[in-house]
Amino acid sequence: MAKGSNTEKKVLPLLEPIVEENGLELVDLEFVKEGANWYLRIYIDKEGGVTIDDCETVSRLLEEKMDAADPIEQAYILEVSSPGIDRPLKKEADFQRFQGEIIDVKLYQAKDGRKQFQGKLAGYADGVITLEEEDGSVFEFTLKDTASVRLAVIF
């Protein structure tokens, strides 16, 4: 989930109780700089999808806790949203939940001359993702070697 930056580690204990108390799942948390601005992005989900009200509630409650604790020195923009239809898979529970779904895997280093793969999530165990492509080819990737794993968007 959180990539491990100090800021993310400071925000996580403030955020997790808010998410849990509101019956939501914390999908991801990131603190990134884009251009001149810093962004604190929170991605939440729940069965049936999140609403604007869910995002607003988490944003308001987190702002209150952040104002009191003041864990971030620089100015930032807080964004709370759903993970979208191309939801990232990061936790073991994500891989179990979406077993059998079509996923997109992007690697840091090429494997068999490729950095991108798409196929059915055939399994996940001990940090190893098993993907089966449409032609029946099976590939295994360690989670640490993946740049991203997302649900595929297929039209």
What report would you give on this structure?
With 155 residues, the protein is α+β, with helices and mostly antiparallel strands. It is 26% helix and 40% strand. It has a five-stranded antiparallel β-sheet with strand order 7-6-5-4-8. The protein has a three-stranded mixed β-sheet with strand order 1-2-3. A hairpin with a 5-residue loop joins β6 and β7 (138-142). The model has no long low-confidence stretch (mean pLDDT 93).
Keywords:
single chain, GMP Synthetase, Chain A, domain 3, Ribosome maturation factor RimP, Ribosome_maturation_RimP, alpha+beta, SH3 type barrels, 5-stranded antiparallel β-sheet, 2 domains
Mean pLDDT: 93
Helical amount: 25-40%
- CATH fold name of the largest domain: GMP Synthetase, Chain A, domain 3
Q: Looking at the structure, what is the overall shape?
A: elongated
Briefly summarize what is shown:
Keywords: Cytoplasm, Ribosome biogenesis. The protein has 155 residues and is an alpha+beta fold. It is 26% helix and 40% strand.
Secondary structure: elements and pairs:
Elements (H helix, E strand, L loop, with lengths): L5 H16 L3 E10 L2 E9 L6 H18 L7 E5 L10 H6 L4 E10 L2 E12 L2 E5 L5 E5 L3 E6 L4
Helix pairs in contact: 1-2
